[in-house]
Prior knowledge:
Lysidine-tRNA-synth_C; 3 domains; Rossmann fold; six-stranded mixed β-sheet; tRNA processing; globular; ligase; nucleotide-binding
Amino acid sequence: MNEKNLMSQLSMQIINTVEEKIKHQRHILVGFSGGLDSTVLLHCLYQLREQRYPDLQIRALHIHHGLNPKADYWVQHCEQICLEWKIPFICRRVEVDASKKGEEAAAREARYQAYRAVIYPNEVMVTAQHLDDQAETFMLALKRGSGPAGLSAMPESMPFMTHVDVESGEKINSLLLRPLLTLSRSQLDHYAQQFTLCWIEDDSNQDDRYDRNFLRLHVMPILNQRWPHFASAAARSAALCAEQESLLDELLTSALQEALDYQGGLSIEVLQTCSAEKRNALIRRWFGYHNLTMPGYHQLQRIWQEVALARQDAEPIFQFGSYDIRRYQGYLWLVRRMKSLVNQQFTWDYPAPHILPNSLGCLVVMHGKGQIRPPATGEVVSIRFGLQQTINIVGREHSRHSKKIWQELGVAPWMRARTPLIYYNEQLITAVGCFVTRQGLVDEGKQGIAIHWDRND
């Protein structure tokens, strides 16, 4: 039985659309909730593998949020579908902290953190948002008073995360793709009926306390009844906003580069020479440079007034999601909030590369090209954090307290407790990338090592 007899013209169109959007990608991680949208997406990829691309490797990732009493059943449902379609299935449980952002935003953040933890370096992340989702996202941005960046809604393709090859140090960039974004929910429903697919109906989708559900249940039906092509029109407006943002990116690239410190800080002095409009645009692009959500208008005002223009002796902090915006030495800095590592100790299987906790990156030993002495036989190499003692470092005649040394070296206050400290037994050898102690200096005429810190931030 040939392919055309198996599916309607619309179903063929949907499969062809997915094929076009994934292009040459052959390693795919699918966000699989078990709902209509992700079930259609996974089935399309399954069809492509079975009918056209036998080398297509698909994995399905289901996120257990723990928010619905039926969540365990949903896991079983998704696992059974993947078993039938011979697709490797992964389930990850996440904790949703709704105390700061609300349940919807917190669940989304937890979900995407799980995606990043599971994805392989050679994979693309594929999710099932569709045209109606895009229209809802546009309306939610409008409700928030967003500018063109927020009204751009969701792109079909965007950078997702950067992997670092531990052995080579090479950076590998992965993408997030949304291949269903031009297709309506009714089209997906037609596809599901055509193939008699089974999917989950999440009863929380009927709870109009959530903004997106309120739009979906009460607002969008009225708009679509009056203007049947409203979702497509909203998507076009989002695309035009994205086009304008892309043009602004192009025009402001050189100005942003001029304002950036080599470590990613943003010069307050440069911003002070700009109009308020240009300053706000540069701060937004600074957030984009760090792959963060754009701040809203009122947040921009507070960042400028409460952080950039705070009195000189202050140490201002503005909280933005899981980040803090801080000021240091005339620059604004985006600092990821994390649990303290002070007083913790980690044994290093020297000289193998070592992955640091809290996603701080990786330490790599480079032999024969540094001033640090290698550990002697029997010396245990460990990594610690948080230095509060008097030390004697290379380049200084006298011992000084670590607080003074950090200040002299221009190490930002938040980095002092995040910088890896290398110990041989109980002897401090080096603060990686900052200083080497007298006891850690290689003897003259002998080969030393360097320790490279490949930082995720």
